[in-house]
Amino acid sequence: MNIKVLGGGCKSCETLLKATKEAVDKKGIEAKVEYITDMQKIMEYGIMSMPALIINEKVVSVGKVLSEKEVEMFL
Amino acid sequence: MWTFFQDQILGMKWLNSLIRALLGAIGLDTSSRIGGSINFFIYDVIKITVLLCVLIFLISYIQSFFPPERSRKIMGRFHGIGANIIGALLGTVTPFCSCSSIPIFMGFTSAGLPLGVTFSFLISSPMVDLGSLVLLVSIFGIKIAVAYVVLGLVIAVIGGTVIDKLHMEDQIADFIRKSNSRIDIEAPNLTVKDRLVYSKDQVVSTFKKVFPYILVGVAIGAVIHNWIPQSWVETVLGSKNPFGVILATLVGVPMYADIFGTIPIAEGLLAKGAMLGTILSFMMAVITLSLPSLIMLKKAIKPKLLATFIGICTVGIVIVGYVFNLFQNLLI
User: Fold this and answer.
1) Which pLDDT band holds residue B149 (cuts at 50, 70, 90)?
2) Using CA atoms, how far apart are residues B115 and B305, in angstroms rounded to an integer?
């Protein structure tokens, strides 16, 4: 599984990254969690609100700081 | 009836009386300097915290109807100055944190929205938001609040129009201009429960984020209220200093704080004889332009456009300050 957290480096984006990593650990899934701050790449997903969560190249959440539990539901 | 609502419900004057009585009961004289400072501090922290929580909740609920994706679609339907006005208005209700300003900028630009409309949106968004409106009503009264919002929107519309007329499309960062991503993400459909949960989350996260600013702001306000001599404030920020507005704006631009943190400072200065316009310029400058947001924006636009943007905002804020100073007697 390939997971990407997109953000601009602000606090809410980092909170989502942390929650995502924790959710992956908790579920024990083999997954690579990437943190993407490159605006060019972010733009390719057509996203306008940060932070965003991408799972296997699919945009699952935009503009929301998800909690660990909420991330788990997407996994 | 309105005065009662404004003073007691929004302004919470009753709370001030209560705190004064309680402090008096434990033997603290609130007419003394220290007592007065403590009184101001407790009253203002409680008042602003309560207002903050209630306001953020209501505002977030309204904002949940206007994600950027939807605002972009609405703006795309208008043309000319109408589009600038709609952009400025939507800027006040579309939620986004400072790190989303670039994706929003990119999203709008790549969807073919005129640069000027995007800037009307970006200028009005931090300067005039619903929270500042209600907070201004509670502290300065309805007339000043409405005048502030109207002038803020006017700056946003004029600023956007000027940028449009300057034809600075070549000043957008190359990677945005060259990109042809037109992925159109639909705004998610939310239920009432989703919106309530979102609003609650916003209250919690905003509170955590701005509470330190409120404490610092109120502390400074309390110091101004009780320790700084009236004559100092009057000399620097009052009617005796014709450059007060410019000074306040220049000091405010690099500063970064939330409107909830700047209001207690403004309140303190006003009570000490600073001119209303000078204070409002300071507030607008602090909220609208700040180093972190400019550094962000620099990634998306070239220096010339960035400088134009800063210039227009600064001049606009200074003009608003002088207009308010001119009409101060009518408003207070």
Assistant:
1) confident
2) 11
B67 and A40: CB-CB below 8 Å?
no
Distance between CA atoms of residues B63 and B150, nearest Å:
20
Reference A37, options A14, A61, A64, A65; nearest CA is A14
- Cross-chain residue pair B99–A8, CB shorter than 8 Å: yes
- The candidate with the shortest Cα–Cα distance to B268, out of B52, B46, B42, B41, is B41
Per-residue pLDDT tens for A30-52? 888 888 887 777 877 877 777 88
Query: In the CATH scheme, what is the code of domain A2-69?
Result: 3.40.30.10
Mean pLDDT to the nearest integer, B113-133? 82
B27, two tokens: 């033997």
**Which residue would you say has higher pLDDT here, B171 or B9?**
B171
Q: How far is A30 from chain B (nearest CA, A)?
A: 28
* Domain boundaries of chain B, sorted by first residue: 2-331
Please give the DSSP secondary-structure letter assigned to residue B170.
G
CB B242 within 8 A of CB B275: no
| Residues B264, B275: Cα–Cα separation, whole Å | 15
Burial pattern B308-319, b for ≥16 Cβ within 10 A else e, equals: bbeebbbebbbb
**Set of chain A residues whose Cβ sits within 8 Å of the Cβ of B106:** 39, 43, 48
ipTM of the prediction: 0.72
Q: Which residues in chain B touch residue A62, judged by CB atoms under 8 angstroms apart?
A: 67, 185, 188
Q: Rounded distance, CA B20 to CA B18, Å?
A: 5
